[in-house]
Amino acid sequence: MDTNLPVSTQPRVVIVGCGFGGLQLAKSLRDAPVQVVVVDRNNYHNFQPLLYQVATGALEADSIAYPIRKIFAGQKNFFYRMADVQRVDTASNTIHTSVGDIHYDYLVLATGSLTNFFGIESLEKNAMQIKSIPNALNLRSFIFQNFEKALLTADPDEKQALLNIVVVGGGPTGVEISGSLAEMRKHVLPKDYPELDLSKMQIILVEAGTELLGPMSVKSQQNAKRYMDELGVQVRLNTHIKGYENCRAYYSETEFIPTENLIWAAGVNGAEVPGFPAEAIARNKRINVNRCNQVVGYANVFAIGDVANMVTGEMPRGLPMLAPVAQQQAEHLADTIQRLLKGQTPADFTYKNKGVMAIVSRNKAVVDLPKGVHFSGFFGWLTWLFVHLMTLVGFRNKVVAFVDWAFSYFSSDQALRLIIRPFSRRDVKDDQGKKKAEHNTSTPQYNPTPPAIQTPA
Ligand SMILES: Cc1cc2nc3c(=O)[nH]c(=O)nc-3n(C[C@H](O)[C@H](O)[C@H](O)COP(=O)(O)OP(=O)(O)OC[C@H]3O[C@@H](n4cnc5c(N)ncnc54)[C@H](O)[C@@H]3O)c2cc1C
């Protein structure tokens, strides 16, 4: 298959992935004397930090996605191909994609990350994840389907498992989704499901470490824990989920939490693209890069964002997987490529940490700024809303998100709880949209022994 890209006298920069990094890089190369070719399997840019709001019915999927072609309309040196990149051939400067081969002069991998199930097959098969828009829509449908099923069953154990929601991973995503579900339990579900005894609905946030929000300040960690307690989310620290089968989330060989809803937000790996030697790949499957984002051992191949493992003196385990890291590296790489074209030496990248934040629920968020400044509560919440609204791509998306948020704030309601695409676990697909092996049915298979909520020793 021919990708029909126009032949150009200018060098071709191929960017794989149009997430935060790829999008910013292609924009920053707008006036550079290069042909920019972006390849992404999706024809939209996805604003991942708000995926959990799609999953819990607070925002429409369309509000957090934006068509790639629309973003770049009018950028003359820009070309897009919707394709899955399968392999890099560095010897011939070519990428092999699902729509044909593409030659590059400079290659930039901005492929982000994939959910890491730490090799636990039962979790990979049965847990819900939240890395993509299809994941978020599936999760939304699945949770509401389970409330409908809970109405129908007379079996108290089955009902309890359908009502229990276990969120694994106490980082920002786990905290945000747990808080959002707790809000839904308080404000939305009593109106929709007056027949269900929602006092039985348990939201259980499980974290293997000793604190929630591991990378944040102690103050923010403590505030997040207090907010979770206030919202009635059960936080279980120092607890490892080791498997998930037959609607049982096991945290030891014999102890488990019965649940039909297990959301896995406990880790990610770099979304490496095959074609590099083992020494180019670091822990977490990130690609080793130098301080100019050059893949170690290759002059014309770069990686940015989540997939890039850039080690600095301050961050010996690599820069964090955050949107600002990807965006800043992209801006810097645009400069690097232009310097290389002029025969100049590129400068090293330095990450400017402008702060981290996590929202817990309405009026509750935690914010850490540089130089030890922390704040939380209503002001933190307003800051979070403002920053996320401003960084959403597209004016329409900003307006729609603002209206949806204002509506749910003043009405204590959420408009979006349609089960448009009924979901069964048989449909589970991985982050790349590939169908996973079939596994347990959507109807729980209960062990004759009544499951009970077990308390860690
Ligand atoms: C639920 C969630 C919440 C988050 N919250 C925050 C937050 O609050 N603040 C924050 O700073 N960060 C947050 N992050 C992390 C942030 O989203 C990432 O750090 C950021 O998206 C990384 O940008 P990137 O460009 O490296 O990759 P991504 O934005 O992930 O983009 C990767 C792109 O590559 C494409 N792609 C991947 N592989 C291929 C392939 N083989 N072929 C073709 N296309 C491919 C994908 O389709 C995608 O468009 C969150 C992440 C998640 C999942």
UniProtKB/TrEMBL annotation:
Keywords annotated in UniProt: FAD, Flavoprotein, NAD, Oxidoreductase, Transit peptide
Segments of skewed composition (Pro residues): 447-457
Residue span of region Disordered: 427-457
FAD/NAD(P)-binding domain span: 12-330
Molecular function per GO: NADH dehydrogenase (quinone) (non-electrogenic) activity
Keyword check for Transit peptide: yes
E.C. code: 1.6.5.9
Residue ranges constituting the External alternative NADH-ubiquinone oxidoreductase-like C-terminal domain according to the UniProt record: 354-410
UniProt biased composition (Basic and acidic residues): 427-439
InterPro entries attached to this UniProt entry: FAD/NAD-bd_sf (IPR036188), FAD/NAD-binding_dom (IPR023753), NDH-2 (IPR045024), NDH2-like_C (IPR054585)
Catalytically driven reaction(s): a quinone + NADH + H(+) = a quinol + NAD(+)
Record-stated family: Belongs to the NADH dehydrogenase family.
The protein's name in its UniProt record: NADH:ubiquinone reductase (non-electrogenic)
Originating species: Hymenobacter elongatus
